[in-house]
Amino acid sequence: MGAIEAELAVLDWREKELSEITSQVVDALPRLKQDLNDLAMAAGKANLVVKTPKLGRDVDKIVAEWSQAELQVALGRARVDLEVVIKSDTFDVVRSGGMKEDLLSAFPALAGVGMIGASLAAVPALVAYATITTTTLLVFTTSSISWPILGIGAVVLGGTALAGGKSIDRTISKRREALAASLEALADENVLGIGKAPNADCILSRIQAAVLREAEAIIREEMV
């Protein structure tokens, strides 16, 4: 009975963390969008008169730093909550009753469900809690989440140039706005999976998967 109660306790913990991570990421998304908008507003004209702006490295850096920061927040909260579960009487019964294998064998099923299945496959299992690093948990670049090339279309300057500087400035301004809108839409798609196929990998599910991977490592170590 102890192992079943422990599994239920882990399930409750998991549902709480997945829900809180979702709320956390949704609340933090406007900050990422603002940073990407600032990048678009600061883009030089050279990046606004070509078909493919050369901003990939800058976008990659902004998104990766944001993702890592949100991961750290999620991990910190999840560790505190998991410690309460592990120190409960239920887990003491599992340890003393020789039922730890029952709990450990059930953990993959407890974790690998629903939308985060693809992300769990992308985040490696951890041998021990002592080996955990942020890099291990969230190997992230924009290309790994399939961030599309930023194609906003070539600006035709031949006839525009003859119309004078103001016309060129208006064209550049429109291109800047188009780039900002493109980046915002890509943020929704790649952070929350909006517009992607069901169960597709995204930053939100990658963070959730990383938290579950760490929990699995902690529980395994606690059961030794």
Radius of gyration: 23 Å
SSE succession:
HHHHHHHHH
Q: What is the overall pLDDT average?
A: 74
What share of the residues lie within helices? 55-70%
Largest sheet features: none
**How many domains, as an integer?**
1
Quick one: overall form?
elongated
Structural category is mainly alpha
Strand content: under 5%
Runs with pLDDT <50, length 5+? Answer: 136-163
Report the strand count. Answer: 0
Q: How far from one another are the termini?
A: 20 Å
Number of helices: 9
Keywords: Membrane, Transmembrane, Transmembrane helix
Transmembrane segments: 109-132, 144-165
Organism: Maritimibacter dapengensis
Protein name: Holin of 3TMs, for gene-transfer release
Features:
mainly alpha, 9 helices, single chain, 224 residues
Q: How would you describe the overall organization of this protein?
A:
The structure is a single chain. With 224 residues, the protein is an all-alpha fold. The protein is built from 9 helices and no strands. The longest helix has 41 residues, at 2-42.
Task: Chart the SSEs and their pairings.
Layout: H1 2-42, H2 56-86, H3 89-96, H4 100-111, H5 117-122, H6 134-137, H7 158-163, H8 165-192, H9 203-222
Question: What's the short story on this structure?
Answer:
The protein is an all-alpha fold. It has helices at residues 2-42, 56-86, 89-96, 100-111, 117-122, 134-137, 158-163, 165-192, 203-222. It is built from nine helices and no strands.
